[in-house]
TrEMBL record:
Lineage: Bacteria, Bacillati, Actinomycetota, Actinomycetes, Kitasatosporales
Domain of life according to the entry: Bacteria
Protein name: Methionine ABC transporter ATP-binding protein
Protein family: Belongs to the ABC transporter superfamily.
Function: Part of the ABC transporter FtsEX involved in cellular division. Has ATPase activity.
Molecular functions per Gene Ontology: ATP binding; ATP hydrolysis activity
Keyword tags: Amino-acid transport, ATP-binding, Cell membrane, Membrane, Nucleotide-binding, Translocase, Transport
Domain ABC transporter residues, every copy: 2-247
A Gene Ontology term for the protein's cellular component: plasma membrane
A Pfam family recorded for this sequence: NIL
Subunit organization: Homodimer. Forms a membrane-associated complex with FtsX.
BP GO annotations: amino acid transport
Length: 341
């Protein structure tokens, strides 16, 4: 549904070039919620602004729903007719809501419909439907200043849906909200994704957002996508940095040379059996549990545990094989850099 190829953006700032996007290849499938995560300055905002050509990339292509936007003329306010048409099928939600304070909630939602020339009656009907969809039917006559942050973001979402978009872009939509409101807005995005078949591309600096709402994710660093994929696949990959960040499990053990640290992951229907005590009993070994967490990720129950066994990797080949036989994913950590060996 959204594909970027070799997407590059260079800003010229005070006489020097800033490489904000460096050959970004991204593929967001139709109907999924895709999260881009990364620290400040990684290039997330630039990426999302290039996806709907609010920012014209320096090179590379952006294709949304089969239309190559980068081949259409104009950008920002001077977009040509075809680009404006294509943009109508892409909704955008902003961190600070971007509502007009002098207009009522209803009038804010009607704004994009006014711009496309819909008549008054149809505008009213459509805006009322959208406000109902986001749970704000009773606030139609209120002004943004009379709403909470979460309600303002619901208005922002209703407005973004006015053009019946197939794709919704969310630029840190929950960063200005408290944790409970964040949860309710993420749930709303998830519901809209499922009810309307909406494809959602969101950017965030919070791993919790990825964990609670996304099907897939990409990690950005220094303008590059360093990892991307479906969360279920990433969780099955012992080298995945995203998976590691989804489960911060504490330290890496005693640091002694004759110890083996394992990371054990179980997903979905994998046995929720007491494998640690079974292992200890079967092989008569003392197992040190270093950390454990169970989360619901992409709608599936996923657990991860880090344990330390006495002896080297070679000494533990048989117990590791036993765990794998139980349907568990087992990665042996390389203690020098904390990733799977
Ligand atoms: N208009 C601009 N002019 C010059 N440099 C820019 C401009 N916009 C962004 N940059 C630079 O591009 C890089 C990527 O910025 P961007 O805002 O995309 O990152 P980000 O991951 O969204 O960060 P944040 O989470 O802080 O918004 C940064 O080095 C930033 O300073």
């Amino acid at each position: 549904m959204i594909t970027t190829k070799d997407l590059t953006k260079v800003y010229r700032s005070r006489g020097r070039d800033v490489l904000a996007l460096d050959s970004v290849d991204l593929h967001v499938q139709e109907g999924e919620v895709f999260g881009v995560v990364g620290t400040s300055g990684a290039g997330k905002s630039t990426l999302i602004r290039c996806v709907n050509l609010l920012e014209r990339p320096t090179s590379g292509t952006v294709t949304v729903d089969g239309v190559e936007l980068t081949a259409l003329s104009g950008s920002e306010q001077r977009a040509g007719r075809e680009l404006r048409e294509a943009r109508r099928r892409i909704g955008m939600v902003f961190q600070h809501f971007n509502l007009l304070s002098s207009r009522t909630v209803q009038q804010n939602v009607e704004l994009p419909l006014e711009i496309i020339g819909l008549d008054r009656h149809d505008r009213r009907r459509k805006a009322a439907e959208l406000l109902d969809l986001v749970g704000l039917a009773d606030k139609a006559g209120s002004y943004p200043g009379q709403l909470s942050g979460g309600q303002k973001q619901r208005v922002g979402i209703a407005r973004a849906l006015a053009g019946d978009p197939k794709v919704l872009l969310s630029d840190e939509a929950t960063s200005a909200l408290d944790p409970e409101t964040t949860r309710s807005i993420l749930q709303l995005l998830r519901d809209l994704n499922q009810q309307l078949g909406l494809t959602v591309l969101l950017i965030t600096h919070e791993m919790d957002v990825i964990k609670s709402v996304c099907d897939s994710a990409a990690l950005m660093r220094g303008g590059r996508v360093v990892e991307s994929g479906r969360l279920t696949d990433l969780l099955a990959d012992g080298h995945s940095r995203i998976a590691r960040d989804l489960f911060p499990l504490g330290d890496f053990g005693s640091g002694q040379a004759d110890r083996t640290v394992l990371e054990i992951t179980f997903q979905g229907d994998a046995p929720a059996q007491p494998f640690v005590s079974q292992l200890a009993r079967t092989y008569q070994i003392d197992i040190n549990i270093l950390g454990a967490a169970v989360e619901t990720i992409a709608g599936r129950l996923v657990g991860r545990m880090r344990v330390e066994l006495p002896g080297s990797h070679t000494d533990n080949v048989v117990p590791i094989g036993y765990l794998r036989q139980q349907g568990l994913q087992v990665d042996v950590l390389d203690l020098s850099n904390g990733v799977a060996a």
